[in-house]
């Protein structure tokens, strides 16, 4: 436990350092304290394969099988911060992976709905989240391009894989005043983390925030643009 505490403290320092390095892109000097508290509370080592546990608190992505990764903690913190969540919010996550981002979001909002296209990962993530007590996260297997219309509209939507363009269904399922955070670009090519906002009148604005590198969004629509 003491070793984990030291590792988490170091990770938070790494996130603070990287935030400072990226201030000109992200437009702020620090990540919201609620987000950092969530990062501190979520045991990242529980969301990685056993052979990756020694590296769980490094500030970098890690493979989790099936060609997927658990995102870099700084990026998890930044994307969570960009959503500007409130405790009463309901959010959608596209790309559950191992469930780490879902767990962080669960500390910030009332309910998280997460879609994962790899059935084995969807099942494992739900089992892990349930075992660890994250009762406000629901995971299902499916193509996240289509969102989860049964639970829309969402206060926020976060996409953890790079799409060639922003999926229209996700914009449609965003609540008025909501935010969508998504990496956009070509697989293993140039990608930009984008913030999409829908104002009270339903008008949509978009801006690039930061160059990033994500695994590609897969599924029927992802294949169309390859």
Topology:
Blueprint: H1 2-21, H2 23-26, H3 33-41, E1 62-65, E2 68-70, H4 73-82, E3 90-94, H5 100-106, E4 111-116, H6 119-131, E5 137-141, E6 154-159, H7 168-172, E7 174-185, E8 191-198, E9 204-212, H8 220-224
Parallel strand pairs: 3-4, 3-6, 4-5, 6-7
Antiparallel strand pairs: 1-2, 7-8, 8-9
Helix pairs in contact: 1-4
Can you tell me about this structure?
- The chain is α/β, with parallel strands linked by helices and 226 residues long.
- The chain has a single domain (2-224), classed as Vaccinia Virus protein VP39 (Rossmann fold).
- 32% of the residues lie in helices and 26% in strands.
- The protein contains 8 helices and 9 strands.
- The protein has helices spanning 2-21, 23-26, 33-41, 73-82, 100-106, 119-131, 168-172, 220-224; strands spanning 62-65, 68-70, 90-94, 111-116, 137-141, 154-159, 174-185, 191-198, 204-212.
- The strands form 2 sheets. The protein has a 7-stranded mixed beta sheet.
- Strand 4 (111-116), helix 6 (119-131) and strand 5 (137-141) form a beta-alpha-beta unit.
- Helix 1 crosses helix 4 (73-82).
- The radius of gyration is 16 Å and the shape is globular.
- The relative contact order is 0.12.
């Amino acid at each position: 436990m003491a070793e984990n505490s030291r590792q988490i403290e170091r990770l938070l320092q790494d996130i603070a350092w990287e935030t400072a390095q990226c201030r000109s892109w992200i437009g702020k000097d620090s990540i919201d304290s609620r987000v950092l508290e969530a990062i501190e509370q979520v045991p990242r080592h529980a969301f990685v394969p056993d052979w990756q546990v020694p590296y769980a608190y490094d500030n970098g992505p890690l493979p989790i099988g099936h060609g997927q990764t658990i995102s870099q903690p700084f990026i998890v913190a930044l994307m969570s911060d960009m959503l500007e969540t409130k405790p009463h919010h309901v959010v959608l996550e596209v790309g559950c992976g191992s469930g780490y981002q879902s767990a962080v979001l669960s500390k910030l909002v009332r309910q998280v709905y997460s879609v994962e296209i790899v059935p084995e990962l969807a099942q494992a993530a739900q089992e892990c989240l349930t075992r660890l007590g994250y009762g406000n996260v629901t995971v299902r297997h499916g193509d996240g391009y289509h969102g989860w219309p049964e639970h829309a509209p969402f206060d926020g939507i976060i996409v953890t894989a790079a799409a060639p363009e922003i999926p229209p269904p996700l914009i449609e399922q965003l609540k008025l005043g909501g935010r969508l955070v998504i990496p956009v670009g070509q697989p293993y090519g140039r990608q930009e983390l984008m913030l999409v906002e829908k104002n009270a009148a339903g008008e949509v604005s978009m801006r690039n925030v930061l160059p990033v590198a994500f695994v590609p969004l897969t599924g029927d629509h992802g294949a169309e643009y390859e």
